[in-house]
Amino acid sequence: MAKDLSHLPGTGGGQPPQGAGHHQPPPITRYHSDGRPASDRNVILPLEVRQVDLILNRTHLIHELDFRVEAGRRTVILGPNGAGKSLTMRLCHGLIPPSRGRIDWRGPLGGNPQQVRRHQAMVFQKPVHLRRSVRENVAFILRKRGFGGEDLRARIDSALHRARLEHLATRPARALSMGEQQRLALARVWVMKPSILFLDEPTASLDPAATKDVEALILALHQASTTIFFASHDIGQAQRIADDVIFMSGGRILEQCPADMFFDRPATREGRAYIAGELLA
């Protein structure tokens, strides 16, 4: 039940944000993850998670995760604090190995670990930036991928324009506001052109205006063919973004279904209580 946010900056259409004047983002061009123009970036999806458990320090934190992420979808993991959303993100992104079960990438390049790493990205609640300028943070990603010269400069300019950060290009990245830092993190993702983007509650510390800007960039990335896998405890945000919902509590998946089905007719007592705003123990 993802709502139409085409009026937001970065998603096309509508009016520019206050203070932006006639300064509109450039039109979205679709590419493969290796930079070739195309209609679809997918080279590693679908992602299959089968009977995954996570046990750390003898504590069973994640129980029998079982789901599949299809290319082109916007999937939101929804649930209260401590549900296991962030751990699920880290498991899928390969930051921590599962104690049991399998995490498999089934796309054309999914059997190549180097390509799997190359074609995914993750944005955290607190972004991680280099001790360099805004511009150099974007340039670092592109140089690592072999870009240089005028092509490098053009790609940096395009990404900063998309994120509305051109006027901050020479500022130290770590001196930005939290909302600006998240936009910079997404500008770095923009130049990577990943098959899938994992987002671990990236707007949890932001005010509504900054949240709107970040959501607009996320939806622009999706429009450019990046699959979105998003963790949130914000029901309103999930309603704005999600095609599909995975609802978790206590380290377990309790429901997984299309978003409109979950929000209209949650199948579990816990799901109904969560939608009603009740606290889940």
Please, could you describe this protein's structure?
With 281 residues, the chain is of the alpha/beta class. It has a single domain, classed as Rossmann fold, CATH 3.40.50.300. Helix content is 32%, strand content 21%. β6, α6 and β7 form a beta-alpha-beta unit. α4 crosses α5 and α5 runs parallel beside α6. The longest helix is centred in the last third of the chain and has 16 residues. It is globular and about 55 Å long.
Task: List the main descriptive attributes of the protein structure presented here.
3-stranded antiparallel β-sheet; disordered N terminus; 32% helix; 281 residues; Rossmann fold; single chain; alpha/beta
Main sheet: which strands, in order across?
Answer: 5-6-7-3-8-9
Number of strands: 9
Radius of gyration: 19 Å
Q: In terms of per-residue confidence, which ranges show pLDDT below 50 for 5 or more consecutive residues?
A: 1-29, 31-38
Shape category: globular
CATH fourth-tier homologous superfamily: P-loop containing nucleotide triphosphate hydrolases
Give the DSSP E fraction (strand runs of 2 or more residues): 15-25%
Along the chain, the helix and strand elements come as EEEHEHEHHHEHEHEEHH
Distance between the termini: 27 Å
Task: Predict the CATH topology.
Answer: Rossmann fold
CATH class: Alpha Beta
CATH architecture: 3-Layer(aba) Sandwich
Total number of domains: 1
- Please give the count of helices: 9
Helicity, as a percent range:
25-40%
Question: Averaging pLDDT over every residue, what do you get?
Answer: 88
